[in-house]
Amino acid sequence: MSGQGGQDAKFFTRGKIQEFRAELEAAESKDKKFTKRKTVLKKIVANITMGNDMSPLFTDVVQCLGTPLLEIKKMVYLFLVCYGRQKADQLHLVIPSFLQDCNDRNPLVRALAIRTMSYIPTPIVIESLTDQLRHCLKDRDPYVRKTAAICVAKLYTADPRKAEKGGFVEMLRDLLLDTNATVVANAVAALSEIGDRQDGVIFKLNLTVANKLLTALGESSEWGTIYILDSLLRYVPERHIDAEMMAERVIVQLNHANSAVVLTAIKVLLYLMNYMENRKLMEYICKKMGPPLVTLLSSGPEVQYVALRNILLIIQRRPSVLKNDVKVFFCKYNDPIYVKLAKLEIMYRLAREENAREVLAELQEYASEVDVDFVRKAVRSIGRLAIKVQPAADSCIQALLDLIETKVSYVVQEAVIVIKDVFRRYPGKYEGIIPTLCEHLDLLDEPESKAAVIWIIGQFANRIDNADELMDDLTYTFLEEPTEVQLALLTAAVKLFIYKASSDTTKALVHKVLKWATEEVDNPDLRDRGFMYWRMLAINPTVAGEIVLAEKPAITTDADRMDRGALDQLLLHTGTLGSIYHKNPETFIRNATGKALADSPALNPLSRQVLVPASRPNLPPPAVVVPGPGPSEPTSTGAVSGTLVQTDGESPQNGSEASVANGTNGTNEANGASAHLMSTSASQETPSNEGDDDDGMVSPPASADPYAGLDNAFGGYMADEPRPQNRNLLDMI
Amino acid sequence: MAIDGLIILDNTGRAIAQSGFHSFPSAYPLLHIDALNSALANSPRHTDVDPVIYVQGLNLDTPSACCHIRRGELRYLCPVSGDVDPLYAFAFLQTFVDILREYFGHLSAETLKDNFDIVYQLFEETLDSGGHPLTTSPNALRDIVLPPTLLHKVLSVAGVSGLASSSANSHPFASPIPWRKAGVRYNNNEIYFDVIETLEAIVNKNGQPAVSTVWGSVDSNCKLSGTPDLLLTSSNAQSLMDCSFHPCVRLQRWARDKVLSFVPPDGKFRLMDYRFAPATASAVSQAAVPFILRTGVAVDEHGGSIDLTLSSRLTTRTMENVYVELYLGEGATGANCLASHNASWTFNPKSQTLVWELKAVVPSANYTFRGSFTSTAENPRPSRAFSVRFEIPQHNFSAIKIEQLKLTGEVYKPYKGMRGTSFGNVEWRW
After folding, report:
1. What's the DSSP call for residue B302?
2. Residue spans with biased composition (Polar residues) (chain A) (predicted)?
3. I need a surface site. Which of A92, A270, A433, A622 has the fewest CB within 10 A?
4. What is the radius of gyration, based on Cα positions, of chain A?
């Protein structure tokens, strides 16, 4: 090959139109084996690929179309595809050749001709294509039929109404029953493409056709298998038994070598499980889904990444899938960072009392690694583990204290941030470690960690002997601090004053801070809060104390979980971009149609309760969400300020009550805008962490917009999660 | 479910070849190339770029995503603008790379440029302009796009007249089995199986494995005439878990009897992948790591010292090409070490890694490695684990053996061959 190799590279020289034209003319005589023409055409194609405009040669090149050599035909067709639309006025010259090729003896030529025509969507080509396509869809050669099927989708894109009038959709439907599996698969692909268009006909499957498609699975290529499996989501089972039978036939595809087939099969199974009743079978399916997901992790990092993002979704809906496989997600230090971060998140989600010790040991290992981002997340995960798994809390706290001793600045900062949450989760249990935290104040230079430690000092000012000294030091730079820290300082100063009202220093301190906040600061949040505190303290300090130091709702890790209805909907997109970004595709892909679980008598009642109708794209946002003031707390909005706001009526809803109310009429609009602001704190009910969600009580939709809680589903911890960048569009949902 | 096209970049980030993006603005592929190149430039390590990059469209309403992989010195990009399974894009990219390898052997920018017409034919045949994969089975492809060697041979010897594909006496796509072409003839009927197993393990400080998994795959090279229907029985099949198969394998049969029944494709293909789970009494069974590494690492100001002892746990086999690597952390400048048994060591100042390389590790011998390193960092932070790679020829962790290969549908008796190789990839924490 190397001997021959060099010869083609020489075609990559910039050629002149005139030269090529002359060469083509010269090639018309004495060119028995068409080698001359072939050489010139190769040069022209090489120039096209280099981006040189070869369109002036249109008429000359088109003349070669009559050459009975497939290789030359292919190159001319390539030329036509590139410049056909530009030269629409000259296309009529080509039509006769097209028609001739459509009736060629060789099926490859027939297929090539209609394929090329479908690539040039100008009226004149489309006109002649429609007739030819009708014949080709009934061609005796399967290669032509399968090419024709895809061409119908192209025709539909070019002129939907013409394709519908011409009866092409019906013809495609007939192809679903073709004897050749590849033809069936391509017909499915074409119908799906048409069905995914917003202006397209709706493509739905009934039981007979769905079963017929399943039989074609065995003989289709891997891509065909994907199309067919994907199309099964368009079948809505009417009876439990239908869904169950179908799932049993899909399960074998989990053993396919192609990772995309595996993930699509999992998507179908997850979908069908919504319509099942047989718990035993569902458990069996869950058990079967685990190993193929694990196998995906033995592939390259790209596949791992996609798999991990999907696993994250799947285990939230079906926690039993990988229940015992937490070890699979242990990170190697040379894994790419995106794989490590995704694994870490999954490890946290799979952590239970039984494996907490192993997980903690791993997390500690990661906390000593080199990569800053990863270390930070590992430290945070230790804290989250303490909050999630109560029996492991002691050892987690010990691990965090050990980490603080390392005095590595970013480790200490992360540790402080999570310890604040731990205090709230287990009130009165770990306050003994506060002095240790205060020893490391000087290491904190980031707003979030500073705000956290200030919150701790304020909240527990009665237990910290030198709280006033510490606060005095911290307020020294008040006016230069970022808003987040200023808000924390303001609240902490008020708390300190309430605890130690008799002390002169605290009085002076709170006065100083309030004066700054109300007079020297431009931020309206800060100023308003300053005034509010000031008035409260002026009118009745005792009541103010009750309000500011009111009992806080204990935080839980529930808000980490996505809303069940949203999750059901996202899982319909398993494997797709939507599942990578954890967003519904219609929110970031133009022309994407939303998918929603369809209601049917067989639909699992709990799925029906949280049913989210497919949203129409580009709806105006239902309400403007204003982030509440106060230091941002990952698991519940506005803890400090929340105590002030929450008193006025809108107390966190009791899950069971609300679900009864909501269960009867589905998504309750009445929850409306006021709940919107509190979407995260409203879901305080205890979820059944073990077993499927189907067993437990279903959380009430936190608000009218099921995605309101989505961003918080990761509790703000997933700052580095991949997501589309045009935030303005996404923030509106 | 359709991808937008395919772009191949050389190692400087310039496009070598790309499929036709006919239904897109001409800037569309460039946009993706730029997005990837700038993402690579902004990332400290090239491997840390997300495999799915979000690409802002020219006008704000047409965002898209760019899936990319790197194989050898080339990068392959797959722009996606619909809600498509990225795995679908990755699976297609991998298939396309495999096809290119099949056609050209070693892949480099030069090879692709030299054979650009074949590359473009492959684009045309594997992917239609709407992004639906067409023909990706190498068996069927070879009928419609002649591989370079065969093409030149046919052209020079026979002097082609008429259609190129008519040189193959069988009609393309005539075969009823999509992955196998019809009318194959060989003088010697033989089939070879390569069983390759890789141990992936993480060993904790105390020498206990935290995770240890053996992934295996069976690659096959089939040179059998006609349409042979094979039935392969193997010993130890019960301990093969989580299998995935080439589409030719009858899945129902495996589920029932744990035997492989299939009509093989012609030529090279991967028959199956699996995970090996040793059948032991304990519920959690893990493969054993075949060596012990005793580590002593001390970090001081501007440097540190390393003291390692490696010994094999195997009784008869020799481990070959053992590499023990340690990343010495930002700022590492050099190392000075001493290795026993004439083993060699190197320090790569660019990647700041220290590598101890042993050509062979025989059983019952202790290999030692001692040395120190220097660093410009005051507190060097070497990675917390050694990465150890090794291979064991003629050996399989799973001890899988072919017991019997039955052939029906044809009259000849095939020759079968099997070879095993094991690799290891162990992270040893200290």
Report:
1. T
2. 643-659, 677-689
3. A92
4. 33
**pTM of the full predicted structure?**
0.78
The 3-class SS string of A330-342 reads: CCCCCCCHHHHHH
Cα B156 from Cα A70, distance rounded (Å): 18
Q: How many CB atoms lie within 10 A of CB B281?
A: 5
Q: How far is CA A427 from CA A345, A420, A459, in A?
A: 26, 11, 11
Whether A723 sits inside 8 A of B54 (CB atoms) is yes
The b-or-e profile of A577-597 (16+ CB within 10 A means b, else e) is: bbbbbbbbbbbbbbbbbbbbb
Residue B130 and residue A150: Cβ atoms within 8 Å?
yes
Q: Is residue B128 assigned to a domain?
A: yes
Answer whether B163 sits within 8 Å of A154, measured CB to CB: no
Query: What pLDDT, on the 0 to 100 scale, is given for residue B164?
Result: 38
ipTM of the shown complex: 0.82
Shortest CA distance from B47: residue in chain A = A336
Condensed to tens digits (0 to 9), the pLDDT of residues A698-718 reads 444 333 333 333 333 333 333
Phi-psi domain of A65 (left: phi exceeds 0; alpha: psi -120 through 50; beta: other): alpha
Does an H or E element contain B406, and which? strand B401-408
Q: Is A196 exposed, middle or buried (0-12, 13-18, 19+ CB in 10 A)?
A: middle
Tell me how far apart the alpha carbons of residues A381 and A585 are, in angstroms, rounded to a whole number: 29
Please indicate, yes or no, whether residues B107 and B248 belong to a single structural domain of this protein. no
* Residue A8 to residue B117, Cβ atoms within 8 A: yes
Q: How many CB atoms lie within 10 A of CB A249?
A: 15
Please report, for the domain that includes residue B112, its CATH number. 3.30.450.60
User: Which residue in this structure is represented by tokens 């060596």?
Assistant: B291
Q: What is the pLDDT of residues A603-654, one digit of tens each?
A: 776 677 666 655 444 433 333 333 333 333 333 333 333 333 333 333 333 3
For B322, residues 6+ apart whose C-beta sits below 8 A from its C-beta are: B291, B310, B357, B358, B361, B388, B389, B390
Geometric angle at alpha carbon A228, from A226 and A233, rounded to 5° = 100
CA-based nearest residue in chain B for residue A121: B23
The boundaries of the domain holding residue B342 are 291-392
d(CA A65, CA A71): 11
The CATH number covering residue B381 comes to: 2.60.40.1170
Query: What does DSSP say about strands B366-375 and B332-339: parallel, antiparallel, or unpaired?
Result: antiparallel
Q: How many CB atoms lie within 10 A of CB B231?
A: 16
B208 and B312 share a domain? no
Which tokens in the block code for residue A233? Answer: 């989501």
Task: Report if residue B48 sits inside a domain.
Answer: yes
Chain B contacts in chain A segment 141-180 (CB below 8 A): 141-143, 147, 150, 153-154, 157
Parallel/antiparallel/unpaired status of strands B209-223 and B267-276: antiparallel
Distance from C-alpha of A437 to C-alpha of A444, rounded to nearest angstrom: 10
Report the alpha-carbon distance of residue B103 to residue B117 in Å, rounded. 12
Q: In this complex, which of A157, A263, A302 lies closest to B85 when CB atoms are compared? A: A263
> Which DSSP helix (H) or strand (E) runs through B337?
strand B332-339
Query: Which amino acid appears at position B105 of this protein?
Result: G
For residue A317, give the H/E element and its range.
Answer: helix A301-317
> What is the C-alpha to C-alpha distance for residues B270 and B220, in angstroms, rounded to an integer?
6
Close Cβ partners of B14 (under 8 Å, ≥ 6 residues apart): none
Which residues, at least 6 apart from A601, have a Cβ–Cβ distance to it below 8 Å? A238, A239
CA distance A417 to A413: 6
Looking at per-residue confidence, does A102 or A66 come out higher?
A: A102
> Three-class SS of residue A358?
helix
| Contact between B130 and A193 using a beta-carbon 8 Å cutoff | yes
To 5 degrees, how large is the angle CA A426–CA A313–CA A582? Answer: 100
Tell me phi and psi for residue B64, to 5 degrees: -155, 175
Q: How many domains does chain B have?
A: 3
Residue A264 CA to residue A196 CA, distance in Å, equals 17
